[in-house]
Amino acid sequence: MNININNLLRENIKKLVPYSSARDEFKGEAAILLDANENAFGSPLASNYNRYPDPLQLKLKSKISQIKGVPTNSIFLGNGSDEAIDILFRAFCKPGIDNVIIVPPTYGMYEVSANINDIAIKRVNLTPAFQLNLEGIAEAIDEKTKIIFICSPNNPTGNSINRDDIETVLSNFNGLVIVDEAYINFSKQRSFIQELLEYNNLVVLQTLSKAWGLAGLRIGMAFASPEIIDIFNKIKPPYNINEASQILALEALENIDKVNNWIKETVKERELLDKMLLALPFVQQVYPSDANFLLMKASNPKDIYNYLVELGIIVRDRSSVILCENCLRITVGTPEENKELLAALQNYQKI
């Protein structure tokens, strides 16, 4: 699939002259930097953060490029994936005119960001098996539909979306298809970043918040054609990833073996937790998961949630979400945390 990205862009973005920061105009090393009105004396910290960071995070992108096998000019780094989602709306969707498609139940930020940007939302619910309703999506698309959001593995259901179905959407839609892979590290499915050369309307979102354990640093990743990445960089704030986050992320990316071991342990614990939860009499179903959490259907989810809160164990009540009625979402914890959770639930059935 090869579409004209420029035709999707809002006119004001086509004409936008991006802000040129001091670090855009001078790149490199110098003995005396008097161009950016920084504090020349340093920082009141053990390390100095008085200089503005690299606005394009090139060292960090280079390391990510080595790990992901994607060229640096196909990588955007944002303040969480939420920044990338927001930029997509601001770049490609005209407020009050255009619309996007989401496939509930799904990650809630797509809808929130659409509402903030005054973009209409078309909802095409997943099937009862939590897969795409391809006919429904095809019927929902009109000439004002600019973006389709697909989360795979999906949040809050945990399952991966059928790959052939996603490719069907990519091949037949003349807008952007966003495949959000925040949980891809826990899945046996291969990432869609391998398909970037085949589909220029594809944007893949990933994050350092989940498997990499860097949620506090707020670093999201978007992978797309260089043309789309250039648009992201044109719109983003000049210094959207701070220096401390860039340094710490680079350090973390050197520890890929540790992260891979955590992923293996998480998957092992997920399988054990699945089995143990199903043995509880009030648990009606535990849905298959390719993520680091399980969606559990129970006969009395609100009571279970409140009971666990009293014990200092916090899970997520998803009962009000479409197709997730009577469900709790449970993150896979450490072996010790999972044992405490299971012990609490086993005691609950005795009450």
TrEMBL record:
Its EC number is 2.6.1.9. GO terms for molecular function: histidinol-phosphate transaminase activity; pyridoxal phosphate binding. Its cofactor is pyridoxal 5'-phosphate. The keyword Transferase applies. The modification N6-(pyridoxal phosphate)lysine is found at residue 210. InterPro entries: Aminotrans_II_pyridoxalP_BS, Aminotransferase_I/II_large, HisP_aminotrans, PyrdxlP-dep_Trfase, PyrdxlP-dep_Trfase_major, PyrdxlP-dep_Trfase_small. It catalyses: L-histidinol phosphate + 2-oxoglutarate = 3-(imidazol-4-yl)-2-oxopropyl phosphate + L-glutamate. Residues 46-345 form the Aminotransferase class I/classII large domain. The keyword Membrane does not apply. GO terms for biological process: L-histidine biosynthetic process. Pfam families: Aminotran_1_2. Keywords: Amino-acid biosynthesis, Aminotransferase, Histidine biosynthesis, Pyridoxal phosphate, Transferase. Pathway: Lipid metabolism; Amino-acid biosynthesis; L-histidine biosynthesis; L-histidine from 5-phospho-alpha-D-ribose 1-diphosphate: step 7/9. Belongs to the class-II pyridoxal-phosphate-dependent aminotransferase family. Histidinol-phosphate aminotransferase subfamily. NCBIfam families: hisC. Homodimer. This is Histidinol-phosphate aminotransferase. It comes from Olivibacter domesticus. The lineage of its organism: Bacteria, Pseudomonadati, Bacteroidota, Sphingobacteriia, Sphingobacteriales. The gene is hisC.
